[in-house]
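for the writeup, i need someone to sanity check this before i put it in the appendix. the sequnce is what the collaborator sent (i think, or maybe the updated version? ugh). structure was predicted straight from it, no edits. if anything looks off just tell me and ill rerun, i have time this weekend
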Amino acid sequence: MDFISNLNLITLFAVIGGVGFVFLLISLVVGDVFEAVGFDLNAGGDANLDFGFLDSRVLAVFITAFGGFGLIAAQTGFGPLASSFAGLLGGVIFGGVVSAFGRFLIGQQASSSVSDSDLLGRTAQVTVAIKPGVVGQITAVIGEERVEKVARSKDGEEIVAGTLVKVSAIAGDSVIVEIEKG
């Protein structure tokens, strides 16, 4: 009788681990399964939750590890409670590792877009002359990105092409510049 109950426990953990593994394979192909089916757990938009404990890949690893560690414990003769605890411990550890690694990878992503506020105080070069009361164009380099913006003179004075200017303000789609001193 003990062999049959032990076999059922082994079968139960094997099924749990198998279901988790299939879920993990689906996550490998689809990515975050919850997001793919429109169930967004990060509806608030908090960037720190991009790869949390409720991410489908983390849950798939947790379920797989729970089944695997529970199976190993049941196979070595532990009872249902001890096997479940071993599965839970293994699932939490492996799920935590995957979550931490995912958060690390998400944190390494960088945005290459330059916002208008990044231009404030920067030095730029006039590429199309700015005439009194008429807009011209400047070019600035921020990081490795070259940005071209429509520009107006702060004092209404003419600024010839090739002059170095400082961006002093943002005005809608254009920037306000002044000749750089020194």
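Confidence is low (pLDDT under 50) at residues 43-49. The chain has four helices and five strands.
thx in advance!!
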